[in-house]
Amino acid sequence: MKVCYETESIDRKGEIQLIHHFIADEYVKDVFQINLMALKNNGKRVILTDLDNTLVGASVKKPTQEIIDFLTNAQSLGFEVIIVSNNKKERVLHFAEDLTIKAAHHKSLKPLKLKLRRILKQYDRNQVVMIGDQLMTDVLVAKRLGLYTILVEPIHLDSDENSTKFNRRLERFVVKQLKKRQLPTPPYLD
Ligand SMILES: [Mg+2]
Question: 62 with 99: CB under 8 angstroms?
Fold first, then answer.
């Protein structure tokens, strides 16, 4: 009986830890609602951001003027900005070629930690913010790496890639589990 009890408690603990990896620190409508000044005052210095449906819709090839202004403002406040996209090299490089950001990574393999961990080697993780639109990739990898995480509402759901559509289904399942436990969920999925 004792063994059984211990196994249960370990499972329960594991489950609790896992489910907390799907809870962002902030939920906002879009990146323009992010309070960069507050982040700076809280010691954040580095922004890792997803691209598709976070900065622009997945079918938008180039940054909009609003996004250029947002990124420029972030940099003028002292943030280093790094794009970490799961999308292909051509997409990411074409999007980022006119931006003056620190780096733009393609095929970042989120939610795997491998590539982001490499990027994070040169930073203090307490100073890093992750911005993204997906629980299953952006939030999950960021929380697993111990980063402060901001979830934005996806810009255009209809332009999602097939892999993302699959993730969105998983996302709805996770949201159900979060709700069951009365944990915070993305407001747009309520
Ligand atoms: Mg995205």
Answer: no
Q: pTM for the complete prediction?
A: 0.90
Q: For residue 27, how far is its CA from the centre of ligand 1 (angstroms)?
A: 15
Q: How far apart are the CA of 76 and the centre of ligand 1, in A? A: 25
Q: Which domains does the chain have, with CATH numbers?
A: 22-156+163-181 (3.40.50.1000)
Q: Tell me the per-residue pLDDT of 136-169, one tens digit each, with 9 for 90 and over.
A: 999 999 999 999 999 999 998 766 677 788 888 8
Q: pLDDT by residue (tens digit) across 43-60?
A: 999 999 999 999 999 999
Residues, beta carbon < 5 Å, ion ligand 1: 50, 52-54, 133
